[in-house]
Design a protein that fits this description.
Elements lengths: L4 E2 L4 E2 H17 L3 H6 L2 H12 L5 E2 L5 E12 L11 E16 L7 E2 L9 E4 L3 E8 L4 H26 L18 H20 L1 H4 L4 H16 L3 E6 L4 E8 L2 E8 L12 E3 L1
Parallel strand pairs: 2-6
Antiparallel strand pairs: 1-7, 3-5, 4-5, 5-8, 7-8, 9-10, 10-11, 11-12
Helix pairs in contact: 5-7
């Protein structure tokens, strides 16, 4: 953005917002489940903000300064008023420039806010500096100051309009993400061992259990688990799904094991699947 041009006229701010939103959505979709579960939510959000954050530029008016020099300037040709001609010619004249330091994302100087002046300001944007130039052959101090002030104020207005649109609240989820509770490997192996040992008892003494219903069979497993987990195991039946779930609220989390219902053929060994 090194040459002088019309500012705030290339693309609409709504398009830029939608482009950023699509970029964030695409990045979120690429986050693996392991990363979501292993990293704090605040760290994930901070990483996304750092990746997609863009600051609307701010002008440092206090550090602005003016330069003046002589050089070739464009002025209307003396034949410009004849036949609708709009030609210009270059002559020696005065060039006055207002240099204003800026900070922020320079691409915003080409973004059009939803509200804007009828005539967009012109300036050169380079190396974190806004340069507004007035040139002519016969310039008065009052005219130069007025034109520089008008262009500067127009740029500030457009940046304020962009800042209002860019910082407007976005729709977001009201409930923060809460990872599912985890089950320690030692506890998991302990549960498997208890269930495995109880299944071996049933295999070795089949006649003792052959007339026992499913509810009572489940209670045999729960008695063993309650003995190890201080009564924190419970059972809940989901008959319409054909599964029975035992929940283990242990060490700050709740996990479940599922076994086939009586609607399936009996198996010689009951192997629970622990979901956590």
């Amino acid at each position: 953005m090194g040459s002088e041009g019309r500012l705030f006229s290339d693309r609409y701010v709504s398009d830029l917002i939608e482009s950023q939103r699509s970029g964030v959505d695409a990045r979120v979709q690429r986050i693996s489940n392991n990363e979501i579960l292993s990293r704090p939510v605040d760290d994930l959000v901070e990483g996304l903000v750092h990746m997609f954050e863009m600051a609307v530029p701010t002008l440092d008016i206090e550090q602005a300064h003016v330069s003046q020099n002589e050089g070739m300037v464009e002025v209307p040709s003396r034949f410009a008023n004849y036949g609708g001609a709009r030609d210009t010619t270059r002559v020696m004249g005065t060039i006055v420039s207002l240099h204003i330091p800026s900070s922020g994302e320079e691409r915003f100087f080409k973004v059009s806010p939803s509200t804007r002046d009828f005539s967009a300001p012109r300036a050169v944007i380079r190396d974190n500096e806004v340069t507004i130039t007035v040139s002519g052959r016969k310039l008065s101090q009052e005219d130069v100051k007025q034109r520089l002030d008008e262009a500067r104020d127009s740029i500030i207005r457009h940046l304020d309009w962009l800042r209002g649109a860019w910082s407007a609240p976005r729709p977001s989820t009201t409930a923060p993400f809460k990872p599912e509770p985890t089950l320690e490997e030692t506890t998991y192996q302990e549960i498997l061992g208890i269930v495995h040992n109880m299944a071996l008892v049933m295999e070795r003494s089949p006649t003792a259990f052959q007339w026992i219903g499913e509810e009572d069979l489940c209670q045999h497993f729960l008695v063993q688990l309650n003995g190890q987990f201080e009564g924190e195991a419970s059972a809940e039946t989901f008959s319409y799904q054909g599964f029975r779930t035992s929940s283990f609220a242990s060490r700050g989390g709740t996990s479940s094991s599922q076994s086939a219902s009586s609607g399936e053929a009996p198996k010689p060994f009951l192997k629970p699947s622990i979901n956590y």
